[in-house]
Amino acid sequence: TRVLPPPPPPPGAPRPLCGACGALPAWAARLRATGFLISECCFPAFKAKTGKAKRVRTIFTSDQLARLEREFARQQYMVGTERCLLASSLHLTEEQVKVWFQNRRIKWRKQTLEQQQAKLAKMGLATPQR
């Protein structure tokens, strides 16, 4: 079957418009869109941001995670020379170790709160969650 192009918009009606080339974008025509739209050819202009590039997510090895968890169990705050030595021994940056500890403390607090709420619920003293 052959797909017919959409009929042209009536005179005076707003039509999809590409800011760069002034063309009716193919996707807008397929959707029979009306109004002023921006074509796919213009999207990269909106994606380009100035400033810092997005940080790549660190993927920790199981050995690194095991060591980080052991250190966290020993002490929840890792600062100064200790953090530097730990980062060096794990082949990570100090920033990566610092952020891991920050995130782990948040996870620990959340787990502790959930455990406390479960205990209260068992005793029939549960309070509604915020």
Automatic annotation (TrEMBL):
<feature type="DNA-binding region" description="Homeobox">
    <location>
        <begin position="53"/>
        <end position="112"/>
    </location>
</feature>
<dbReference type="GO" id="GO:0030182">
    <property type="term" value="P:neuron differentiation"/>
</dbReference>
<dbReference type="InterPro" id="IPR017970">
    <property type="entry name" value="Homeobox_CS"/>
</dbReference>
<keyword id="KW-0678">Repressor</keyword>
<keyword id="KW-0805">Transcription regulation</keyword>
<dbReference type="Pfam" id="PF00046">
    <property type="entry name" value="Homeodomain"/>
</dbReference>
<keyword id="KW-0217">Developmental protein</keyword>
<dbReference type="GO" id="GO:0000981">
    <property type="term" value="F:DNA-binding transcription factor activity, RNA polymerase II-specific"/>
</dbReference>
<dbReference type="InterPro" id="IPR009057">
    <property type="entry name" value="Homeodomain-like_sf"/>
</dbReference>
<dbReference type="GO" id="GO:0007417">
    <property type="term" value="P:central nervous system development"/>
</dbReference>
<keyword id="KW-0371">Homeobox</keyword>
<protein>
    <submittedName>
        <fullName>NOT2 protein</fullName>
    </submittedName>
</protein>
<dbReference type="GO" id="GO:0005634">
    <property type="term" value="C:nucleus"/>
</dbReference>
<dbReference type="InterPro" id="IPR050877">
    <property type="entry name" value="EMX-VAX-Noto_Homeobox_TFs"/>
</dbReference>
<keyword id="KW-0804">Transcription</keyword>
<dbReference type="GO" id="GO:0000978">
    <property type="term" value="F:RNA polymerase II cis-regulatory region sequence-specific DNA binding"/>
</dbReference>
<keyword id="KW-0539">Nucleus</keyword>
<keyword id="KW-0238">DNA-binding</keyword>
<dbReference type="InterPro" id="IPR001356">
    <property type="entry name" value="HD"/>
</dbReference>
<feature type="domain" description="Homeobox">
    <location>
        <begin position="51"/>
        <end position="111"/>
    </location>
</feature>
<dbReference type="GO" id="GO:0014028">
    <property type="term" value="P:notochord formation"/>
</dbReference>
